[in-house]
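Next up, a specimen:

>
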Amino acid sequence: MYVIVETFYSGGESSSAKVRVRPVDGQEFPTGMRVECSRAMRESAPVGSRFRLLVKPTSREGGAPFLYSNPNNKWEKVD
């Protein structure tokens, strides 16, 4: 399924990535959910940029649910 996501600074989150990705408000998934995706995509545009991604919901044992987008998937910057 495709969702629109946005990049943001991860201040205070336990991640080595300074820039994280989350779904945009008004879609099927909450904005508090994180998206695992291509680092190249995250670094391709200024923080706050939005992208259209092919994702699937998943989780790791004992962890919070998140959306996964294969780094090889195509992505599209949207306004």
About this structure: Helices lie at 39-43. Residues 2-78 form a domain with the OB fold (Dihydrolipoamide Acetyltransferase, E2P) fold (CATH 2.40.50). The mean pLDDT is 92. The chain has one domain: 2-78.
